[in-house]
Amino acid sequence: MRLEKPRKIELPIQGMDCAECMLHVQRAISDLEGVSSVEVLLASEKAIVELDPQLVNLDQIDVALKAAGYSIASGGTDPSQDRRSDDLSRPLITLLGLVFGVVLFVVVFGEWLGLFEEITSRVPFPLGVMIVLIGGYPIFRNVVRALLRKQITAHTLMSLGAAAALVVGQWATAAVVVLFMRIGDYVERFTTERARGAVKDLVNLAPQRARVINDGVEEEVDLEDLKPGETVVVRPGEMIPVDGEVVAGQATVDQATITGESMPLEAGPGTHVFAATFVSLGSLQIKAISIGEDSTFGRVIKMVEQAEIHRGEVQRLADRFSAYYLPVVVLIAIMTFVLRQDALATAAVLIVACSCAFALATPIAILASVGAAAKRGVLIKGGKYLESLVHVDVLLIDKTGTLTLGTPEITDIVVVNGGGVNSLQPNTILHLAASAERYSEHPLAKAVREAAESEGVLLSEPQDFEAIPGIGVRARINGNIVEVGSRRLLSEFNSSYSLRETAKTNPHQVSLERESAATKYESEVFLLNTAQIENLEDEGKTVFFVRLDGELVGLLATTDTLRSEAPDAIQKIRELGITHLELLTGDNRRTAASLAKRLGVGYRAELLPEDKIAVVKEYQSKGHKVVMVGDGVNDAPALAQADVGIAVGAAGKSVAMEAAHIALLRDDWLLIPEVIRIARRTMRVVKGNIGFTSAFNLVGLSLAAMGYLPPILAAVVQAVPDLGILANSSRLLKR
To answer: Topology of 414-559 in CATH?
Structure first.
């Protein structure tokens, strides 16, 4: 009997230097029985493995990885935390650059002057072979391991080229090939590390310890020992270690690490603060709410690390191309040898082929963009969404909390006369509405509660509370049924929800009841001063209705403030070529029309969450690429359905960060055109990388096959594509 279900684990992998390594690690682990899926992350040097613990264990995985030339990092630590290589990388690369230049000068000019051959001829051939074998041992060992696993790598081809040089008696040529193979490895490692830099900078910011108050005494503990609810003390110049609520103290908090916002936050009691932000000009006592991986910063790191999983079509094409490229190179080498009978030309073909560059062309650019964007408060879940964003032609926009500040205020309370109950006082209507909305999370509910508080209205405890998305709420207040909601409340609450039992026993009765409810709705609205409602809605206010025991007793009008940067951002989006913009809202048509006219966009009003999904699908069925912008809470289904879902102000909102494909950690609409520009710039860099690599390999293979590129020079120039990719992709790290 199965005792354990398949589970996912994260393994830190040691020895991954390039995109080709990812494929080798993936194959080594996935070949094991009991492994159902493997995702290898180059940026964070991890493998996410789904396995059956009864069929495979860590020791077996480690053995398989070592057979492929890799291993699980010792001590279970993340290799991206190892700072020694970072400390040495810059001087090491400088030294390698000098060596590269010296060797290039000696090889090119020394051979041209005949000095190189004269020097190497004095070395006995067996000693030269020994130099080649010792210098290339780590590479040759991995090549043999790969061949035993029926894998061909770039090093396989270059090793064959070195072997061909030895066969024809040119040990010096083989030695130069080995030297530049090693230099090429360092160049690839540096290229990858440079792209990882932005991601590693984030990881290195993760707090490790916290100062906690226990029984009035402060003590420093490891973050993993901290529990939610405990009080953390943060002094000036220190990092906040948790997501939490300030319970005491006043301080200025720099939140740039989370939101990318340069303006600091003035924090005091009741303020929500985030882990990995910095305190200055004061101190705080914070009640811990989310810790470690559960904090906003922890989720940011996780999402950035796993961005590689969501690969775009360009990356998949590059992967498929790499798989076929090496066999094609071998075929060209064979044809060169058969047609030209030239072993050195054949060796040069094998040496100059640079397959790693194809594999690096896309992920290096994606890593650079994702990491750099995260530093600015923009989370991009992968290259797939950057690529999709380039092709979008429709932008759909949620209203409340997205386009507006999401902090509406009650502006009008209207008493309805002529209903089936005696007319009530405005404060009584406010009492009923606020009591019914007491536990609702909707922004309008908060506005009603705040209005009641400001008027000194005491609330009652609601019973049988029910929230109906897109319509309103219903609750029992002091024995009476109170309903608060949009226009749909009047015609939909009874027909859609109160008749559930009727639908079970008599489905035909439902349609009759709906018609009756609609007729009743018309009669109730007729009793209102409809001109007054229209005037309120024409002013851009949202009107919602209050019913008591099925009778309409009043209405409330609210207004919400448009984000100041939204009009400018929408104009910039149009300038980027996205001309079809549409507002989607559950608000009434007049309010929606007023806001849409102000922004110059289309609109659809009185929508339920499922209606927004239908709009997205409607555009997609016509071949459009759709971006949906929302706050990630009520809009989560539509965000997930869109080709690219963008959540605004996602910091601290786990729903927003999970549902959206791109999350903006602060409420700034100007980030939306910026992220579109990031996507376009990234894909231009990717295409430039692929184009440059393709052109280089085509020219290099042609010159080598025709005998114009000797093996020594082939070894010298084979690292050029990696350097070109590094230089081109580094542009994405700049703001």
So the answer is: Calcium-transporting ATPase, cytoplasmic domain N (3.40.1110)
Q: Which segments of 505-635 are extended strands (E)?
A: 542-548, 551-559, 580-584, 602-604, 626-630
Cα torsion 85, 86, 92, 96: sign:
positive
Can you give the pTM of this predicted structure? 0.67
Cα–Cα distance list, 26 to 16, 154, 307, 317 (Å): 11, 17, 17, 18
Q: 644-648 and 626-630: which strand pairing?
A: parallel
Domain boundary assignment for the chain: 7-78, 85-201+304-368+690-733, 209-295, 379-405+562-680, 414-559
Please tell me the distance from the alpha carbon of residue 77 to that of residue 89, in angstroms, as a whole number: 20
- Give the SS3 label for residue 20: helix
pLDDT in tens, 418-457: 544 556 888 999 999 999 998 887 778 888 998 898 889 8
Question: Pick from 413, 726, 728, 660: which is nearest to 553 by CA?
Answer: 413
Question: For residue 28, how many other CB atoms are within 10 A of its CB?
Answer: 25
Measured CA distances, 151 to 137, 139, 155, 175, 718 (Å): 18, 14, 11, 24, 21
Terminal-to-terminal C-alpha distance of the chain: 57
The CATH T-level fold of domain 209-295 is: 2.70.150
* Calpha distance 275→262 (Å, rounded): 17
pLDDT in tens, 165-209: 788 787 777 877 787 777 766 666 665 666 556 566 666 777 788
HEC-encoded secondary structure of 513-535? HHHHHHHHHHHHHHHCCHHHHHH
Which listed CATH number (3.40.1190.20, 3.90.1720.10, 3.30.70.100, 3.50.50.60) goes with 7-78? 3.30.70.100
Active site residues: 398
Task: Note the Cα 480 to chain centre separation in Å.
Answer: 48
Run of H or E residues at 262? none
Among 677, 666, 684, residue whose Cα is nearest residue 728: 684
Asked if 232 and 291 count as a contact pair (C-beta separation under 8 A), the reply is: no
For 702-707, the CB contacts below 8 A with 24+ separation are 703/352, 704/336, 704/345, 704/348, 704/349, 704/351, 704/352, 705/332, 705/335, 705/336, 705/340, 705/345, 705/349, 706/345, 707/340, 707/342, 707/344, 707/345, 707/348
Residue type, 545: F
Residue 499, judged by CB atoms within 10 A of its CB (0-12, 13-18, 19+), counts as middle
Give, as one character, the DSSP assignment of residue 587.
S
